[in-house]
Write the structure tokens for this entry.
Amino acid sequence: MGKLVYGDSDIDIDIDDRSLAHLQIVIGNKLRRGESFFFSWKDDPTVGDGRSAIWLDRGIPMYFKFSGGRAPAINRAWIEELTASANSGTGLVFTEEPGQPAGTASSLRGHV
């Protein structure tokens, strides 16, 4: 289980390495172009089963911590889907990987 640490806050988000690698690509591409946006996800039931969102901006430091040593294969269709979401008015909404059975993707667990 990897982790996305948001800025200097006490917010960290647990997420599997495969999902985190895809998010890193999409988030990095948006921030490299100077585009700020919301990132939201459905919370894991262990942290309340609601929704969470954070504002992403190139001035806010982020730390992507992977638990494994190998980079996963990248699913271009998932990158395209996440990028389209990030470019929408609602911002980047985490979704399950295309082609996976519903409910098999791990939920994100944010900790404050």
